[in-house]
User: Which sequence fits this backbone?
């Protein structure tokens, strides 16, 4: 079996990501106290997307994966974004 | 990496004596071919239940007023019919049965990438099916919301909804795991030299389908969890009394359930794309166009869900957008039809049973597709929404599409799967009886819908009587045809004449291995040369 390149991520990086995730979680809760009107959902989704990005990149090692795998994940995010935008064509213009 | 093993190559997967015997040798086997047959027999059993429920509905509608059941029973029957047929038959149908059996062989692999996960998917499927059956047999009455579980009714009704919702949720997991397995298999286990543009079309459609399974199914999973939480705790996401939005449920449900139509139809199109070149003895016309249209259908199909909601109170902007997108998805579907017909043109057509099923698939699929444009157009949809017209449309697409393709596929690959040939005379008789019954059953519903007969009503006005009688008679004829087909296949699997490795002169890899295939498919993994291709006649 072909041996693939291994990579070791220092614990320090994982800890930083963990702290970042906790901060984003706190922010996504705190921001609900601010009246953003139609942008409330957008704000929540932005924080959720940032957290997903960090988890995928570091915890799921996407950073070290082949380019086509990263493109496929990016494509999934693009589909998700398009679905959200189309859904809000209903809510914003209702 | 596919390790070599001690399993002898001359033993077929049906005859192989492994660690276990009897039933255990099947339900503990990780061989993709045995798992495919596990799916097939589970689905056939559930399909017969669904057919019986359908027959009961048509019998109820043979005359106005109560015939054999009242309103509540009718609601329960069409709900359970829908849940079984959609979640347990047509969504997993072709990928789980023919995808499992043929995908590894067609790409030159010994098995799928994760054989144990594959078996686990079947167990998850059975667990989901059992939950749905529990919802029917126990508790406070069978679910009665329709297979769509629309809010707010799904959390207001007093019937036994939770096991049914949870069952659909669990069935979704099976679908996701199967999709994941197929994507990895296609990426990692294609035969050396089999580039993407040399891969047969059935695996291509399985690939497109697997992506939809993977990306869309979690949405309905979460949605069903939210309905359950709404029902148990009243969390207020969908309940308007608590500030929730029931139309949000419809969005979330159809974000999955419309792509699910393509989960159903893409592998069906893949099977037809295999049958037609073989029985025309001709290279498939426009291979790359078919591949591109497969991916286009899978992609655009994500963004058309709102056409199920034109009368829900959705904004005008969203309605126009969904209508335009819906018309776009018709283009790649039409490309496929043109390519199939062009493949037949000047081909050496042999009129065998799989070809009859494939040709009738094109016929009913086109009627279903064109009637879909009536529903995709805003102006006409308003008139036929929630009428029998919609029921006719989706049965032409879903049953006409998936059902006819399933029977085309089973008659095409039957000699490969069981190593025996069926009685072609009875197979052809079964097809024509089924085809006539199908048209008699569903065509009158177009007329009834245009005349204003609503769907999901157990009763109707006298003016709808004649067309309903024709439709009910059609259901009997179609079931008679189905019985002929199934009895012929079961009998032939046991005692039909022995079939050769390549009875149809097919050119894809499954026809290069013995019938039925050995446990690990290939003694040596095939290697594709520069000039090799799946349809080189």
Assistant:
């Amino acid at each position: 079996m072909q041996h693939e390149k291994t990579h070791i991520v220092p614990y320090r990086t994982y800890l930083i990501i963990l702290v970042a995730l906790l901060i984003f979680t706190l922010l996504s809760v705190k921001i609900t106290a601010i009246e953003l009107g139609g942008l409330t959902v957008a704000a929540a989704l932005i924080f959720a997307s940032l957290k997903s990005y960090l988890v995928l990149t570091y915890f799921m090692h996407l950073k070290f994966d082949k380019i086509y795998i990263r493109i496929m994940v990016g494509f999934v995010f693009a589909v998700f974004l398009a679905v959200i935008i189309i859904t809000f064509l209903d809510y914003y213009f209702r | 990496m596919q390790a070599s093993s001690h399993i002898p190559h001359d033993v077929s997967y049906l005859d192989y004596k492994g660690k276990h015997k009897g039933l255990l040798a099947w339900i503990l086997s990780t061989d993709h071919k045995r798992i495919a047959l596990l799916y097939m027999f589970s689905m056939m059993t559930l399909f017969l239940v669904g057919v019986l429920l359908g027959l009961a509905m048509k019998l109820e509608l043979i005359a106005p007023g109560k015939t054999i059941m009242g309103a509540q029973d009718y609601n329960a029957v069409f709900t359970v019919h829908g849940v079984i047929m959609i979640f347990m038959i047509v969504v997993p149908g072709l990928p789980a049965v023919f995808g499992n059996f043929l995908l590894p062989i067609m790409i030159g692999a010994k098995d799928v990438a994760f054989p144990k996960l594959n078996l686990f998917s079947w167990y998850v499927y059975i667990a989901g099916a059992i939950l749905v059956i529990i919802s029917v047999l126990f508790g406070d009455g069978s679910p009665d919301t329709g297979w769509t579980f629309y809010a707010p009714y799904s959390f207001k009704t007093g019937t036994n909804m939770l096991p049914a919702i949870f069952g659909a949720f669990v069935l979704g997991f099976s679908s996701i795991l199967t999709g994941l397995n197929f994507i990895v298999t296609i990426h990692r286990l294609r035969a050396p030299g089999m580039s993407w543009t040399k891969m047969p079309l059935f695996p291509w459609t399985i690939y497109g389908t697997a992506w939809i399974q993977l990306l869309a199914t979690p949405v309905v999973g979460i949605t069903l969890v939210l309905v359950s939480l709404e029902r148990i705790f009243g969390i207020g996401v969908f309940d308007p009394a608590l500030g929730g939005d029931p139309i949000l449920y419809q969005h979330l449900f159809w974000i999955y359930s419309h792509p699910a139509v393509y989960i159903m139809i893409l592998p069906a199109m893949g099977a037809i794309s295999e049958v037609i070149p073989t029985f025309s003895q001709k290279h498939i016309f426009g291979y790359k166009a078919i591949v591109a249209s497969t991916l286009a259908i899978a992609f655009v199909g994500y963004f058309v869900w709102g056409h199920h909601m034109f009368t829900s109170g959705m904004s005008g902007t969203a309605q126009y957008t969904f209508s335009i997108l819906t018309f776009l998805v018709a283009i790649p579907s039409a490309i496929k039809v043109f390519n199939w017909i062009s493949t037949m043109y000047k081909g050496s057509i042999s009129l065998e049973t799989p070809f009859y099923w494939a040709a009738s698939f094109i016929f009913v699929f086109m009627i279903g597709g064109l009637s879909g444009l009536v529903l995709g157009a805003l102006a006409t949809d308003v008139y036929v929404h929630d009428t029998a017209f919609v029921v006719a449309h989706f049965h032409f697409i879903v049953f006409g599409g998936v059902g006819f393709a399933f029977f085309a596929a089973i008659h095409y690959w039957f000699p490969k799967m069981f190593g025996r040939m069926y009685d072609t005379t009875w197979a052809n008789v079964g097809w024509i009886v089924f085809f006539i019954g199908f048209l008699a059953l569903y065509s009158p519903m177009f007329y009834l819908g245009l005349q204003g007969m609503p769907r999901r009503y157990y009763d109707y006005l006298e003016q709808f009587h004649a067309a309903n009688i024709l439709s009910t008679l059609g259901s009997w004829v179609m079931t008679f045809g189905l019985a002929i087909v199934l009895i012929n296949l079961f009998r032939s699997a046991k005692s039909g004449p022995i079939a050769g490795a390549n009875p149809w002169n097919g050119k894809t890899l499954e026809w290069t291995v013995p019938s039925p295939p050995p446990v690990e498919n290939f003694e040596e993994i095939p290697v594709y040369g520069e000039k090799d291709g799946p349809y080189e006649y």
